[in-house]
Design goal:
One of its GO terms (molecular function) is L-amino acid transmembrane transporter activity. It is a multi-pass membrane protein. One of its GO terms (cellular component) is vacuolar membrane. The structure is a single chain. The chain has about 375 residues and is an all-alpha fold. The chain contains 14 helices and no strands. Helix 7 (about 150-175) packs antiparallel against helix 12. The radius of gyration is 23 Å and the shape is globular.
Length: about 375
Amino acid sequence: MSTSNGKSAFFTMEDAKASFNLFCCVCGIGSLAMPSNYARAGPVFASIALAFMIFANTYATLKLSKVMLVAPSSVKTYGDLGEWALGKWGRFFTVVSQMGVCLLVPCAFLVLGSTLLDVLFPDSFSQIFWIIFMALMVIPVCLIPTLKESAGMAFAGCMGTVIADIIAVSVLQWNMRGHDSVPSPDVTLHQVLTCFGNLALAYGAAIVVPDLQREHSQPQRMPRVVVITILFISAFFIAVALAGYTAGGCQLSGNILYSIVSTSDPLGLAPLGFTADRGAVVMAYLFMQVHISIAFSTLMMPPFFMAERLILGMHQGPEIVRFNGEADQANVDLDMEIQEKRSYMQSSTPMDTVNRQVSASSLVEKTEGRMS
């Protein structure tokens, strides 16, 4: 999509689709713990931790996207990137770390989702039943073949978590109005480290960046998409954290949804001593349930892609040749310069692409967009 004077649009609909998937993957259960981070570590240490994680994750994800741009077209997954950079051991460690996140976080989704369903339908079934029920219900959603095709669903997941957080914070602010100033936390090292742990769970965009970039028809636009999305998410995190903390102070539990209703007695008093409007509680829990179901499928996309390659023999490509720093660094630097200047978008032939191992073979594909 381009404007009439030949300049490309700042943010296209396809960029928005990738952004929705990133947002759905990152902004979810992590946002629920933002007020509790301030409740544990205090506003000073929590703000420092949040600022550090914003910078570290934005920088790391941006660099990952740029590396994917200059990598050969045979590099399609996180594991491929690890092998290209560090050989077989690089593939092993990247696959283990990525699969750890992509498979363990959905387990946390199932546990949280079962708790939400138990609050929505108290005294109906056991938590184990709800876990099994939810696992069965998300299977059709997980079978959507690409993240691009699930962009509309990802948008619904984005709105689900935003609306759930807004309702939960509003319930806290309304029911805690008129109280004295919020109590300050007694900060310990353990509480500060727990704050960092919650933030590490919140920021997990990098695990789906290779998949999103592989499916984008103009992958050179992905660095901008990554930066804008993560900064927007971070601003949302800060707003939720401050709004929740100013209402409850150090009294908040680890999950803001658990602060507006008791999970053991959904129809009784909330942990902070008030009785929240049942309709508001139901809406907040329903919208978060929608988000969890959709985010589950987003995080399962990389494992399914890998399973299709290993079991079904799909997505096969040429053998990956490990990056040679001495021989290939100049080519990478030149490709990065080309990507930044975007000069290859105006030329039909990449410049000086003979005998270049690193990315010459993929420059044309990346100009036109490459799909798996």
